[in-house]
């Protein structure tokens, strides 16, 4: 349920006619002394007093212009204080929306009534009434196979509209990522660049591409976010180990060889120790994070594929995929504590949110093991067909993704335990199985939604991201990541957060120029308030809105038969539905992946902005298509690309 779900009854049923008894002080309690006025860092867009509550709307813009300008990122800050005492009102959950200054529903000359009507429509989800900006939502980040990350607003795009807010361009193709919520950053490994990209998750700009050792793959952030640890999967044993980056200076503070093979990384919850597995060496290197000195080397042996630290038991769990053994070590004394034996083929291991259970996947045997961390015993061995390979958790379920099936299995965490029978259910996430895609990254194809009762699931074959809410029989909607090949997904929370006592902040990209309203609702106390403000136009954005937009008319993207295949596409004028006709210098370039000599074909217009080119697809495989036009100022790569797969007649 949405954090604003409770407010629907308040606004719609109760008509926003609450009382303010919560502000009344008893005779026994001393009156609070007036608090100092809030420190404002930006432009004040409005102030009001309603029923004993002082409300100030402030905006802090990332732009350089004095006026609030469309297209820039800005922090909208709502200050809530008690009028009598001046004390900040903490622990509240205000909802807020930004919209054009147009009244929805029955018009009213009463601004307060018009504000209530507008908020009621937002909360009810009235058809055709969608705010320009919803400050109660979040962004979805999609890791692409090409060197980029797509930034999407799910509340819009999953409703059937296009709302790709930004495209983050990387140097090379990404493999893994981890988010720093405190620093508002995203760290993305790029193995072929030997670097880690550092992305600002507020502006969605790449701050830096930092050298991170040879072939950086796994990235892990200490719980205190002081250091970023990067696993280096170099083929040279002298370079295979970890690189540690200072998250403040972005400089390497340690680069050390730890052993051969892939590296997984885990930390104690107090960030005092780091554990680095060395797959081919069969060892685990233990580091003191304060001195960055290696303390010991654990030798469980075998092929180490996963490790995790359990705070409740103070233990480190290490998975040997070759023998099917899970070794348990005391994280402080580093002494062996237990061995849990199963079948060979074990792989990923993760802990449940409460730390009571560790789940281990066995893709080879179609099994999921459930370990009890209190007793270090195997308590369930569950069968999930289709090669389970990825795992994520909500508060109530474990989600298991398989390579050979389009279904996602759900295990009810409350049904786990000695003597209990685990409860299963599943749902479809697209039609093709993800294993057909190949070249999957380490980053997970499942991402938990903000409300912690829903997930996004990437299907890398049909290039869609499916949204599933717990309690439903199937995903409620899907987003097609056009122009890119989706590989992984995660969510960046953009709901209003209490960043200081009584200060509730949300960061958004300022919408189009003109008169806008910010509408705010509180359930406790029961009140609404709307503020009007002006947004200046950005001439560069106005010009960009008229840039060409391409729509490839490919029914399936799969062709058979003759080598010569026609491809059609349509050009539009910017965001409008006006076709762009008369472009006589369009060129189409295509090549067979992974690498071949590119070819160019002439493009002819069929009328009404519709164009066609004939491709010579002589060999089976995936072909990538790009467009360019000198008269439109378009070079190769400016417009989204398309892909066509040529199959043999018998396929």
Describe this structure in words.
With 651 residues, this protein is mainly β. Among the domains are: 5-133 and 497-541, Macroglobulin (MG2) domain (Immunoglobulin-like, Sandwich), CATH 2.60.40; 175-299, YVTN repeat-like/Quinoprotein amine dehydrogenase (Methylamine Dehydrogenase, Chain H); 545-646, Macroglobulin (MG2) domain (Immunoglobulin-like, Sandwich). Helices cover 5% and strands 46% of the residues. It has 4 helices and 50 strands. Helix 1 packs across helix 2. The longest helix has 14 residues, at 111-124. The chain is globular, with a radius of gyration of 27 Å. The two termini are 45 Å apart. Residues 1-33 and 157-162 have low confidence and may be disordered.
Short description:
This protein is mainly beta and 651 residues long.
Keyword list:
disordered N terminus, Methylamine Dehydrogenase, Chain H, Immunoglobulin-like, 5-stranded antiparallel beta sheet, about 650 residues, about 5% helix, single chain, 5-stranded mixed beta sheet, 50 strands, mainly beta
List the total number of helices.
4
Shape: globular
Overall radius of gyration: 27 Å
The CATH superfamily label of one domain reads: Macroglobulin (MG2) domain
How much of the polypeptide forms β-strand, as a percent range? over 45%
* CATH-derived architecture of one domain: Sandwich
Q: Give the helix level as a range of percent.
A: under 10%
Mean pLDDT: 86
List the helices and strands and how they pair.
Elements: H1 5-13, E1 43-50, E2 53-61, E3 73-82, E4 95-100, H2 111-124, E5 133-134, E6 138-144, E7 148-152, H3 154-157, E8 164-169, E9 176-180, E10 185-190, E11 195-200, E12 205-211, E13 216-221, E14 227-232, E15 241-246, E16 252-257, E17 265-267, E18 273-278, E19 283-288, E20 293-298, E21 304-310, E22 315-320, E23 325-330, E24 336-341, E25 349-351, E26 357-362, E27 367-372, E28 377-383, E29 388-393, E30 397-402, E31 407-412, E32 424-428, E33 446-448, E34 454-459, E35 464-469, E36 477-480, E37 486-493, E38 497-500, E39 503-509, E40 514-522, E41 527-535, H4 539-544, E42 548-552, E43 558-559, E44 564-573, E45 587-592, E46 599-602, E47 604-607, E48 610-616, E49 621-628, E50 642-646
Parallel strand pairs: 43-50
Antiparallel strand pairs: 1-2, 2-3, 3-39, 4-5, 4-40, 6-7, 6-37, 7-8, 9-10, 10-11, 11-12, 13-14, 14-15, 15-16, 17-18, 18-19, 19-20, 21-22, 22-23, 23-24, 25-26, 26-27, 27-28, 29-30, 30-31, 31-32, 33-34, 34-35, 35-36, 38-39, 40-41, 42-44, 44-48, 45-46, 45-49, 47-48, 49-50
Helix pairs in contact: 1-2
Protein name: Cytochrome D1
InterPro entries: Haem_d1_sf, Host-pathogen_enzymatic-act, WD40/YVTN_repeat-like_dom_sf
Pfam families: Cytochrom_D1
């Amino acid at each position: 349920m949405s954090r604003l779900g409770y407010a629907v009854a308040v606004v719609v049923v109760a008509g926003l006619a609450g009382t303010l008894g919560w502000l009344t002080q008893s005779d026994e309690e001393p009156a609070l002394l007036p608090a100092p006025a809030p420190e404002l860092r930006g432009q004040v867009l409005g102030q009001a007093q309603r029923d004993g509550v002082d409300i100030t709307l402030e905006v802090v813009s990332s732009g350089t212009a004095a006026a609030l300008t469309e297209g820039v990122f800005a922090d909208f800050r709502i200050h809530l204080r008690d009028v009598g005492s001046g004390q900040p009102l903490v622990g509240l959950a205000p909802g807020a929306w930004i919209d054009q200054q147009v009244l929805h529903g029955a018009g009213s000359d009463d601004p307060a009534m018009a504000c209530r009507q507008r908020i009621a429509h937002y909360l009810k989800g009235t058809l055709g009434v969608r705010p320009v900006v919803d400050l109660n939502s979040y962004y979805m980040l999609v890791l692409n196979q090409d060197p980029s990350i797509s930034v999407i607003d799910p509340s819009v795009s999953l409703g059937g509209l296009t709302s790709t807010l930004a495209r983050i361009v990387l140097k090379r193709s990404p493999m893994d990522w981890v988010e720093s919520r405190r620093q508002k950053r995203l760290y993305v490994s790029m193995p072929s660049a030997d670097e880690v990209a550092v992305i600002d998750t507020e502006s969605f700009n790449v701050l830096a591409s930092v050298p991170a050792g040879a072939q950086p793959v796994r990235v892990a952030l200490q719980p205190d976010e002081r250091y970023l640890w990067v696993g280096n999967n170099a083929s040279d044993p002298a370079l295979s180990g970890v690189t540690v980056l200072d998250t403040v200076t972005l400089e390497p503070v340690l680069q050390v060889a730890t052993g051969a093979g892939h590296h997984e990384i885990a930390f104690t919850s107090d960030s005092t120790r780091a554990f680095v597995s060395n797959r081919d060496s069969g060892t685990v290197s233990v580091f003191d994070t304060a001195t960055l000195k290696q303390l010991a080397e654990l030798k469980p042996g075998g092929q180490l594929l996963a490790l995790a630290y359990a705070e409740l038991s103070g233990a480190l769990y290490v998975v040997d995929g070759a023998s099917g053994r899970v070794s348990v070590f005391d994280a402080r004394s580093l002494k062996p504590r237990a061995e849990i034996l199963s079948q060979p083929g074990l792989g990923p291991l993760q802990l449940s949110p409460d730390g009571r259970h560790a789940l281990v996947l066995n893709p080879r045997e179609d099994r999921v093991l459930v370990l009890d961390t209190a007793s270090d015993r195997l308590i369930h061995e569950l069968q999930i067909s289709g090669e389970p390979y990825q795992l994520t958790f909500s508060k109530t379920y474990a989600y298991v993704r398989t390579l050979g099936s389009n279904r996602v299995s759900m295990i009810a965490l409350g049904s786990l335990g000695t003597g209990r029978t685990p409860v299963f259910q599943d749902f479809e996430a697209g039609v093709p199985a993800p294993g057909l895609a190949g070249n999957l990254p380490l980053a997970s194809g499942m991402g938990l939604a903000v409300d912690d009762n829903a997930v996004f699931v990437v299907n890398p074959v049909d290039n869609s991201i499916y949204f599933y809410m717990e309690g439903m029989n199937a995903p409620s909607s899907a987003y097609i990541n056009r122009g890119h090949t989706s590989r992984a997904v995660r969510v960046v929370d953009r709901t209003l957060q209490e960043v200081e006592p009584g200060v509730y902040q949300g960061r958004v990209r300022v919408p189009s120029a003109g008169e806008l309203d910010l509408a705010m609702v509180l359930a406790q106390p029961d009140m609404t308030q709307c503020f009007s403000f002006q947004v200046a136009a950005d001439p560069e954005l106005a010009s960009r809105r008229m840039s060409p937009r391409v729509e490839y008319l490919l029914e399936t993207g799969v062709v058979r038969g003759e080598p010569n295949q026609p491809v059609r596409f349509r050009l539009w004028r910017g965001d409008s539905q006006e076709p762009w006709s008369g472009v006589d210098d369009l060129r189409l370039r295509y090549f067979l992946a992974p690498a071949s000599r590119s070819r160019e074909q002439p493009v002819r217009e069929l009328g009404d902005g519709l164009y066609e080119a004939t491709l010579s697809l002589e060999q089976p495989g995936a072909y990538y298509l790009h467009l360019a036009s000198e008269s439109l100022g378009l070079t190769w790569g400016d417009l989204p690309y398309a892909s066509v797969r040529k199959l043999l007649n018998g396929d």
